[in-house]
Design a protein that fits this description.
five-stranded antiparallel β-sheet, 37 strands, 15% helix, alpha+beta, eight-stranded mixed β-sheet
Length: 639
């Protein structure tokens, strides 16, 4: 059996994001761990993975936004004739930049291609203290239209593509939050999602439609919400997109599941016809909207191509206008970033044996290609395949997890690593995870828990966490371990738990509330709920009201569930990691936990990284964290 090195897990592979098809080209973002997480834009011909892509935004460009704290959607791309226009928000100054390229045709025997800069790199915006993202290019008016967040709230703004150093033109303003701007160029319409920050966008939001007049002012706004759809409960919209014929498609969960709804409008939004339940399935075709730029479906003529989650697995399908759903035969089970142009589809995809990469499929003949982010390949016989695992969790309800058996099945029972996704409204993904394989190659069993509150299993499952964060998630992770112990699959004296951010909070809660865990590791864990409530940013300002309760009336719950207040119940070795630049969870919280454990002589180690924030991006740091965690576990578990 071959041991998987930490360097192979995190040291090399970039992270692909937000792919799209532009004419005959595939364009995507690439976050590079070996460049401290710098993100750049690359392009190559459609379904031609043997050609090396061209980098369009070389160093020092870093395509990243800070809108709503979590960012997303920094890049906008259009073809104007044969010219490629890119605009992007740069992390170094938060400004909007633009450049145009022309394609240089090589001779027929050449195996290369080249985009030549046609204009100088120009900065469209003045230096400012607001955040831009989620733009679209309006070629008719030659402007960028996008989202802006400042101290007053969120806005839709525009900038001319012909001027530099501009102030924004305000088109629409909201005291709430905005996302997922979609432009119908032909009919001069905009659609977007809007919500007030007392709710998270996956809990309650509105879909808005509007007309653009000749001067690019918004008129005829229509608010589509739960009352409009005659839904008595809360409703969440995701990813509005326009078809070529001017119909609007959006995911909404009035049925309890995020399904696709079609909206037909006349030219001025006076007459609106909504077609719900055309493709009704007890499955989710959307994600929680933590960042902008996510996409799970796209238009193909009058049909929709999209991926839906059922039982934790993502399936690619064609939702046909006659109401039927055609499953697309291909080997991948985890999808994001779906984008289509005519019959061509691109996405980020992985399977249980193939790591994440650019997936391209031609729907006319179902031929496909896949370009993994990493050149590193695992021998299929050296991969632990995740097994869908249901168990009885908190409140006697069924809970889902992925169980990965150890590769080296010795006579002795293996140690168990319990992990859970962050968010906490997230999902344990089913694609190949090299960090999981790092542990299974060393003889560990791993269970990745979709605790109550996870997405992908409908709103009712998601709402199990309402008021119960620190209880349901903790008990579900504990029950997962207990279930595997009871089934005789793992060693009950070698149970470890790991977590980061929100899942770090869950991991600490597990160590505090039960003695079945023998060791733990946490990265930038949520430790002080009162501090978090008082200092969190605008996007999450009231999230804890949903997860725990109102801090003014239920402050006792905040104290009871804060790990920082209960460190004296942790009696197991713990290793901690934090970044000095973390603005979400202050590094002092991890230091305080370490200090309290030292007082009682509990084995504890802490690693502080000077240049990291919330969510480590430097590949060398990620490798270091994995190596130190494994060494710490070996030292104290004899594994």
């Amino acid at each position: 059996m071959k041991i998987l090195d930490a360097e192979k897990v995190y040291g090399e592979a970039p992270i692909f994001k937000e792919p799209r098809i532009i004419g005959d080209w595939v364009l995507w973002l690439e976050q590079r761990p070996n460049e401290k997480g710098r993100t750049t834009a690359l392009i190559r011909p459609w379904k031609n993975k043997d050609l090396s892509p061209q980098e369009l935004t070389p160093y020092p460009s870093d395509l990243r936004t800070k809108i709503h704290g979590y960012g997303g959607a920094p890049l906008t791309a259009n073809l104007n004739g044969s010219d490629l226009i890119l605009t992007w928000v740069d992390n170094k100054d938060n400004c909007l930049w633009m450049r145009t390229w022309s394609y240089e045709e090589e001779n027929e025997k050449s195996f290369s291609f080249k985009f030549i800069p046609k204009t100088q790199l120009i900065c469209l915006t003045k230096k400012h203290n607001y955040f831009l993202a989620g733009g679209v290019i309006d070629l008719e008016k030659n402007i960028w239209i996008g989202l802006m967040e400042d101290e007053e709230g969120d806005h839709i703004v525009s900038y001319s593509l012909e001027k530099t150093d501009q102030y924004p033109k305000y088109i629409y303003s909201s005291h709430g939050l905005l996302g997922y701007l979609a432009l119908n160029s032909k009919d001069r319409k905009l659609a977007w999602v809007e919500w007030i920050n007392t709710s998270m966008p996956w809990d309650l939001n509105e879909l808005k439609l509007a007309k653009l007049d000749e001067n690019v002012n918004i008129i005829n706004i229509v608010n589509i919400n739960n009352q409009y759809l005659k839904c008595t409960g809360k409703i969440s919209f995701f990813n509005p997109i326009w078809s070529d014929t001017g119909d609007l498609f959006v995911a909404e969960d009035s049925s309890g599941w995020w399904n696709i709804t079609k909206i037909k409008t006349d030219s001025n939004n006076n007459s609106i016809t909504i077609s719900q339940n055309q493709w009704a399935i007890k499955a989710e075709i959307a994600f929680p909207q933590w960042v902008l730029g996510m996409s799970s479906f796209s238009c193909v003529g009058d049909d929709i191509v999209g991926a839906f989650a059922k039982e934790g697995i993502w399936t690619l399908a064609l939702f046909q206008k006659n109401g039927s759903i055609q499953i697309i035969d291909q080997p991948f089970i985890d999808f994001s970033g779906i984008y289509s142009d005519q019959n061509r589809v691109v996405a980020i995809a992985s399977s249980s044996k193939i790591s994440e990469g650019i997936f391209e499929i031609d729907l006319s003949d179902k031929s496909w290609d896949h370009t993994p982010a990493s050149s590193f390949r695992l021998d299929p016989t050296q991969i632990s395949i995740g097994e869908s695992f249901w168990f009885v969790g908190s409140n006697g309800e069924n809970v889902h997890a992925w169980y990965y058996p150890p590769l080296d099945r010795k006579l002795l029972l293996p140690p168990l690593l319990v992990k859970s996704h962050s968010g906490p409204t997230g999902m344990a993904r089913c694609g190949l995870d090299l960090e999981v394989q790092f542990w299974t190659s060393r003889g560990w069993a791993v269970v990745d828990v979709n605790y109550g509150g996870s997405s992908g299993f409908g709103r009712k499952y998601r709402d199990r966490l309402r008021g119960n964060w620190g209880l349901v998630d903790v008990l579900d992770c504990t029950k997962a371990a207990q279930s595997l112990i009871a089934s005789g699959k793992v060693d009950d004296e070698r149970i470890a738990i790991v977590g980061s951010s929100a899942s770090g909070f869950t991991a600490l809660g597990c160590l505090i509330s039960t003695d079945i865990f023998n060791i733990g590791a946490c990265k930038y864990a949520v430790a002080d709920l009162i501090s978090m409530a008082n200092s969190t940013h605008r996007f999450e300002e009231f999230y804890l009201d949903y997860l725990i309760g109102n801090i003014k009336t239920e402050s006792e719950k905040y104290l009871q569930r804060s790990p920082i207040e209960n460190v004296n119940f942790i009696n197991t070795p713990l290793i901690l990691f934090h970044g000095l630049k973390d603005k979400v969870i202050r590094f002092e919280q991890s230091i305080a936990i370490k200090d309290e454990l030292l007082k009682r002589e509990i084995p504890v180690d802490i690693n502080i990284f000077e240049h990291e924030g919330h969510g480590f991006k430097d590949g060398r740091v990620k490798v270091d964290v994995l190596k130190k965690t494994e060494a710490f576990f070996r030292q104290y578990l004899n594994s």
